[in-house]
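Format notes (please read before filing issues)

Several people have asked whether sequences and structure tokens are stored in separate files. They are not. Every record keeps both together, in the order shown below: the sequence lines, then the token lines. Line labels are part of the format and must not be stripped during preprocessing.
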Amino acid sequence: METNIPFPEPLAPRFSGLATDLYQLTMAAAYHAHGRNDRASFELFVRKLPPERAYFVVAGLQQALEYLHTLSFNAEEIAYLRSLPVFANVAPEFWDYLREFRFTGDIWAMPEGTLAFGNEPLLRVTAPLIEAQLVETFLLTTLNFQTLIASKAARMVAAAQGRSIIEFGARRCHSFGAALYAARAAFIGGCAGTSNVEAGHLFNIPVYGTAAHSFTMSYEREIDAFRAYHEVFPETTTLLLDTYDTLNAARMATEFGAKLRGVRLDSGDLVAFSKQVRAIFDEAGMQHVKIMASNDLNEFKITELLAAGAPIDLFGIGTELSTSRDMPALGGVYKLVELERNGHTEPKMKLSREKATYPYRKQVWRQ
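Then the structure lines:
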């Protein structure tokens, strides 16, 4: 798993304190009013592995640290909060506190790319109670999503048995912001790169791309589209074969000989087509040409393709990866486990049925 992701400039120069749920702020105001700001420890974890997963791959720590490093409230944000009826009786001293707010706590976390299992703390926050409480929502948002996608990517990479997986999912994500972090998480999960150029720029991820069916369709003849593309990209041409007739397109593509890098199959019987296309290029002495497959693939379909002997060299995966279609949400939680008060450490745990938590700070050891 890739863990040494470069640390670029934050996507935002400052993270707003409003990037949270309202009840974090109402609790903070109540804590402040009653002088309850002892040092506390919270742990972020997933209670148990869901049926669809045997492990998780941790991701999102970099963005969590950027958030904690730059988190603050400006005058406009404080004015907005003061305008809300729920805060009508809050003392002015609380707004003074928010005006000077900075995160001062300690973070312990699994490195990105680490395998994790149920009830293991992915991240622990030890900080004054108000600080530790206010950051819950953003930390869960960030680690839940990126860990979800990194875990899905790792399953696909394992299924591919050494063949490359390229993340193609930007157009199917729930927003472009989600697409950026999906690409990043997929890279941490073992993908070779992404089609998302902005993610490549921000996170130093290799970028890949071919051409769409529209490019071929914009020319009167398919061969003219292929020649036009090859003229501009003579050393890196990868052609999309299935706009009209896959096998005929493969035969036309032999014209480019040693200059053709690869082809992509995006529809039809991928086992049959990949075998037939491989045979066409091998007969032309073009054993170097790589075959990429796409079309709503996932780890199960990849396993089936390879078991059937499909000579596919790499896979482009969009929707199934970047939305984690079979498991579109990760139920990570953030729970108080310890409170320091009057020089003593108090363990904290939840006792409700089916949602009980373990008290005290915990450490995961691997051997």
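For reference, the curators noted about this record: The mean pLDDT is 94. The radius of gyration is 25 Å.
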